[in-house]
Amino acid sequence: MRDVLAELARRVDRGETVGVGTVVATFSSAPRPPGAAMLVGADGAVVGSVSGGCVEGAVYELAQEVVRDGRPVLQRYGVSDDDAFAVGLTCGGIIDVYVERVDKGSFPELPEVLDTVRAQEPVAVATVVEHPEWVGRRVVVWPDRAAGDVPSARARDAITDDARGLLATGRSGTLHYGPDGQRRGEGLAVFVNSFEPPPRMLVFGAIDFAAAVARLGAFLGYRVTVCDARPVFATASRFPEADEVVVDWPHRYLAAQAEAGRVDERTVVAVLTHDPKFDVPLLEVALRLKLGYVGAMGSRRTHDDRLRRLREAGVTEGELAGLASPIGLDLGARTPEETAVSIAAEIIALRWGGGGERLTRTDGSIHR
Questions:
Q1: Cα separation of 138 and 109, whole Å?
Q2: Which helix (H) or strand (E) holds 247?
Q3: Which residues of the chain register pLDDT less than 70?
């Protein structure tokens, strides 16, 4: 729902009633993940997507019906029905879409949720999508508090605790409980939409390749920082897509960020300076942290020299195994922009377990 949240809040704030469809579960080769949402405004405008086009028309019509009668619907779309090619996912997947009517009365916490997301602080919205009586009720969960209208204290406490667990890992998903919130049983299904702060991409080396990587990192949803010790190169005007440009020695900056708890297992580090006096101290720090990705640019010769220097500095073989060097996938890239694509492709492949092969040469599911 992150993609439609601001527009949703804007329309609701001006008194509009809108329909919202949210993917709450996926099976097989579903094109969009849980949390993907589509908003249908009172003027018929559409914002967002739940399937990349496969079932948008059906969800659009259902959202209009839900706005008219006020009753939320949990609908499954897929290829299991005879009319799959009329409204189903022709790619072979199955998705569950929860469609609801949203207005000021049904979601009073919405402005505060938007403020929290804009402040890049974590919040989760837990919505009852299946229950004999509570469908549509919510619990909004912050790390230190919660608000909502689920009638049962037991259910509210269980949802709050489990939503915090999902929020801590940055995952959205559906939780199942007994009718009154018991952790065993069926009858109560709650979709938790996690709005964790965006992951960070730290780009070291204020060069033309860094500008291209920063641009693509921002496009992929990362909060991008460019860092270089040379103030003449590390300027905001040279990196307009970066969220911040920092003048500091790279190893010192990364160590300070780690000590302050501002990097985590989702953080991506791209070392692009290929200068030993910057690279080696920085990689000594980076390879000893729990990060999502550490890549370093350079030729084969630079790579071999870098490994030698890191070993001499005491970096272990196990720590060196976490280094992506030379950086990126073999795409035959030449320009900074093409190189940035190869780096982004490697980051995506490692994050989701992709092999980097051409899909035409592979078998099995496309969407893992």
A1: 10
A2: strand 244-247
A3: 28-31, 79-92, 365-368
